[in-house]
Amino acid sequence: MFGDLFEEDYSSMSNDHYGKGKKLKTKALEPPAPREFTNLSGIRNQGGTCYLNSLLQTLHFTPEFREALFSLGPEELGSLEDKDKPDAKVRIIPLQLQRLFAQLLLLDQEAASTADLTDSFGWTSDEEMRQHDVQELNRILFSALETSLVGTSGHDLINRLYHGTIVNQIVCKECKNVSEKQEDFLDLTVAVRNVSGLEDALWNMYVEEEVFDYDNLYHCGTCDRLVKAAKSELDDLEYMYDLFSVIIHKGGCYGGHYHVYIKDVDHLGNWQFQEDKSNPDVNLEDLQNEEEIDDPLMILKAVLLQEESNLISVDQLGQKLLKKIGISWNKKYRKQYGPLRKFLQLHSQIFLLSSDESTVSLLKDSSLQAESDIRRNDQQLLKTLTSEPPGLNDRPSCPHWFDINDSKVQPIKEKDIEQQFQGKESAYMLFYRKSQLQRPPEAQANPRYRVPCHLLNEMDAANIELQIQRAECDSTNNNFELRLHLGPHYHFFNGALHPVVSQTESMWDLTFDKRKTLGDLRQSIFQLLEFWEGDMVLSVAKFVPAGLHVYQTLDGDHLTLCEIEIADGEDIFVWNGVEVGGIQIPAGSDCEPLLLNVLHPATSSEEEQCQQLIDSPYVFPSNAEIGSVFTACAIPDGVILVNSAESVGEESWTTIPKEDLKKTFREQGLRNGSSLLIQSSNDGDSLLTKRGKWITSVNEVDWLQVKNLCQLDSEEEQVKISATLNTVVFDIRIKAIKELKLMKELAEDSCLRPIDRNGKLLCPVPDNYTLKEAELKMGSSLGLCPGKAPTSSQLFLFFAVGSDVQPGTEMEIIVEETISVRDCLKVMLEKSGLSGDAWHLRKMDWCYEAGEALCEEDAALKELMLSSGDTLLLIEGKLPPLGFLKVPIWWYQPRGPLHHWKSHQDQTNCTFSQGGVWRANSIQDAPSDVHAEVSLRYLGDVEISEDATLGELKSQAMTLPSFLEFSIPSPAFLRAWTVESRRPGRLLRVHCQRLREYKLGQRTEICLEPLQKEENLGPQHVLLRTQMRLPGKRAYALPVDLVWDTARGWTAGSLRHQVADFYSLPVEKIEIAKYLPEKFEWLPVPSWNQQITKRKKKKKQDNLQGAPYHLKDGDTIGIKNLLADDDDDFSTVRDDIGREKQKAFALGKNKSQEALRVRSGDVPSGAETPARPRGPEASLSIHVGSFR
After folding, report:
1. Checking DSSP bridges between strand 570-575 and strand 479-486, what pairing results, if any?
2. In angstroms, rounded to a whole number, what is the distance separating the alpha carbons of residues 1134 and 836?
């Protein structure tokens, strides 16, 4: 009915993943999280099912509905195990609803899944992603249940519980005759505009008397004429009703989200929550001194305590921290404590991260302790709102209400519900129960009440399995890997530690429980190393470019590894704490070795400096003076310059003042890979100018340009935001919104996306990254776009249909990184409006072409190392089975004397416009130029095992229907080439070699060339197309194949002798040249005498496999007979035309690009893209079988 009206609000998702190709550590699939403190279960959102979740929770918390459904046993409904049997009558919808309600009552998980239920509805993934109106769903679901329960004792379930009747009375004013009419209803729709409350709205629509008089008289059947009358509806005075469910809609007509407030009639949940944190004692402003501000534990605890739900997304935690103390986590704490998420992980005894690490809360004990610390032993944080145990107080004055928002369940006070009847978040659908309905005492706080035995047993077994899975997962999550480096296996030289033999023998991998103490770790290592004698010191070490360096010695055997902040994959150096191999080892970050590139003048044997620079690596401690470079390079004195350029390959040298030579390398800001230049004091910059380099001062760009791409009106289209490499992206985004004068709401629903030089929008940048982490350069352009960046567990992917993709035409999609290739393909097909199962995915390679196929359809995208920003291509055609190749076969007919192999229709000489033949139009005046574009005709696909031979591939190709028109005696009369850039590429030789050995890959295409006689080329043979130049003309004869035996070497002399023998000409009377078709040029191959007289490097240069010839199979060799033609020119008329066209094309391309830039005002195309049109409205339906 409403199509795609309502868009989900994913405000709780995290934005900390950015596609930079990082390799992530794969986690085992974790079991669902247990229920939170409310002891109630939410329902997971399938993408657009918030409206369904809200209605299902309401029905589940309706005791009369739930127990009526549970009263129907397998003898009436059937069994889910029999649903696939053809003759079985299984009422799947009520069975799945029973099972879902049992899970919500008894299964210890944070949120249940509705996947099985929606499958029973007959919904596809498209239905699960599309949103609908909850009232429409209520009517359709009730209708489906009525149909499903036909013929059972529950056939009248909906009618019995929800049926109502409106009685309309019309009383004649003259004869007093009463006419009554009854109307049935399941729900009532009321207009609430311009009324003071719901009672007034009901009165106006259903109770208020309507008078028929004057021009609107009533025809009375008794009086048999038009009379005055009054119409009214009967009041139901027998019952009073209590509100127990309010379904809330947040947003407008074209976007929003549903959640529900529900009264827990049976007190199944734990109605506890933290008191209102409006008490000023908890405010951060009251922290007593700067020491508390410097303690991140204290700050984070205080921020979390200010959250009423004690739950917040990690990104929001960072933003609230910024708001409270005026500086971001990255600026204040990251250098000392690392990233925010890592800090929360290392303090798992205080903070509880969700399984996907997107949200965080305080552990219960920690929250009590933190509250006590901050309030200075003030009142207890958690307070039960009733003195009696939860579930035993059913007084009307203390109802237990919960806010159920998909997976999250939170307690809410009754007074807070009144606020939801106004504004953007308002009540949409109300559910009532008769006030007189009483619940039996045994139902109070008893989730097992009236649940069928078979469901009780299923849930008990599932809970046991969950406990086992969580125990295993807990053990796995608390184990981490340590790399032990054994001191006796290392030696110290060149400023760092290096293995004596090999890295493998010097390092041991150890899996250890991070909850154990340092003493336990030391004892375990003692047991592993039976040979160890003396003291054992454990130190944290790290690999730096210079080698292994020892940083921090671990102390406190009573502390756990978490408390001393040992990370997963940490390198631990095991030694005596003093020396290694008799050499005292410097330890600590102050003396971290730096690997620097030092350029210094070379010295001659007479110790005189030469005008040549030597680039040598040197290792220095970070705390050494810069002047120590002179000693290391054995140079008495001079001037030191440092390369201050940011980008690799650029140079911008600045001189270090003499007084700064006493500074340390760290104080000067040098790091690994920095370059220093030493030159004599009186050299000036002569050495630099000899190397073509110069000294410049750096005028650093300190801003970024942000363009408004949110499709919102603004006074400014773009603004410049001042920033440094350490500025956080969130700060830039907020500043841009303010300076562009856009709505504040964009702060919660926007992101920044880099714009490349072609105007293409790249992957969104996470808010918590610095510009350096995001690899953004100063002066870059960013687009402020609607929508949030992908979370840490999601991937932002580009995709397109087909392999011929133009930059900027790709579509975009955000998917979970755990989604399989098969499911990702389905989502992309749906978004592209395509159907069918004959499609597969390929990753686009670096040259914007289709790369290798994603063959493992069940593998997760994360396992295949896909990252945000990657481009996938939807390619038509199913992938062959594993171990098989699907090879397109083409017929290749080179121009030459082999006319008798042509088909009767002579199709291979035609230009085929529908894709069956690739052929370029030939140039006139060049009838004999074989280096014109080749002609390939598509014959069909061959599916063949990789273990088959090349001969078997040819034999199978000969069975293709299109091949039958060619009269080929046997496979030996066929020559096989790979197809590269629509022309023959690599020649496949050796008839009996297996295809696997050729390493063809899934994208390989093969073209077959007919031969006049059988051919058996060996590895030393090279096939060349030779053409004799026609005397007196700028043209060549038809090509003739020449097989060159390179057993005697790839020399020019060997090739010249072979060509001369083939054409029966004296070797000194021929000239040969290789044709370069992409340049329309000929590259002469000089004779041996010419080669040796030029340089004394014959052995290196006289190899035609190397540069500049790179001779290979299929190359064209032009030959001139000097007896008949002494012209030095090898080119043809066609070459002249081709070069002119290339120049014209390059010039036109430059002009069109310049014109496009002027016309667009340098605004990327994304800025002009109109808003995505809303999809057509789609009806909502539930498919039910026939049970009549």
Report:
1. parallel
2. 47
Q: Which of 111, 161, 114, 104 is nearest to 448 (CA)?
A: 104
Distance CA 427, CA 266 (A): 23
**Is position 50 annotated as part of the catalytic site?**
yes
> 367 by DSSP, 3-state: which?
helix
Q: Which tokens go with 476?
A: 């796995």
Nearest Cα residue to 878 out of 858, 861, 855, 859: 855
Q: Taking the mean position of all CA atoms in its chain, how far away is CA 110?
A: 25
Is residue 558 within 8 A of residue 511, CB to CB? The reply is no
Q: What is the DSSP letter of 536?
A: -
Angle between the N-to-C axes of helices 453-478 and 92-106, in degrees from 0 to 180, rounded to the nearest 10: 50
Torsion of CA 997, 999, 1002, 1007, to 10 degrees: -80
Supply the DSSP symbol for 1173. P
Per the DSSP assignment, residues forming a β-bridge with 1041 are 1025
Strand pairing category for 653-655 and 639-643: antiparallel
| pLDDT tens by residue, 856-900 | 888 899 888 888 888 999 888 888 877 888 899 999 887 654 444
Given this model, what pLDDT does residue 632 score? 86
Catalytic residue among 17, 249, 257, 267: 257
Chain segment 694-714, per-residue pLDDT in tens: 333 333 457 889 998 887 666
Query: 1011 with 1103: CB under 8 angstroms?
Result: no
**Cβ atoms of 762 and 808 closer than 8 Å:** no
186-208, pLDDT tens digit by residue? 888 888 777 777 778 888 777 77
Q: Collapsing DSSP states into helix, strand and coil, what is residue 816?
A: strand
The burial class, CB within 10 Å (0-12 / 13-18 / 19+), for 144 is: buried
Tell how strand 583-584 and strand 401-405 pair up.
unpaired
Question: Is there a contact between 333 and 341 (Cβ–Cβ < 8 Å)?
Answer: no
The answer to whether 697 and 711 have CB atoms below 8 angstroms apart is no
Please state, in angstroms and rounded to a whole number, the distance separating the CA atoms of residues 844 and 850. Answer: 5
Distance CA 872, CA 831 (A): 14
Least Cα distance to 853 among 812, 884, 816, 832 occurs for: 884
> Is there a contact between 428 and 422 (Cβ–Cβ < 8 Å)?
no
DSSP state letters, 875-891: EESPPPPTTEEEEEEEE
Cα gap 76→881, rounded to integer Å: 45
Query: Which pairs count as long-range contacts for 907-913, CB under 8 Å and 24+ apart, including other chains?
Result: 907/937, 908/935, 908/937, 909/935, 912/937
Is residue 745 within 8 Å of residue 759, measured between CB atoms?
no
From 50, 751, 763, 1007, active-site residue: 50
Dihedral, CA of residue 777, residue 783, residue 789 and residue 790, to nearest 10: -80
Three-state SS letters, 756-776: CCCCCECCCECCCCECCCCCC
Sign of the dihedral through C-alpha 461, 465, 468, 471: negative
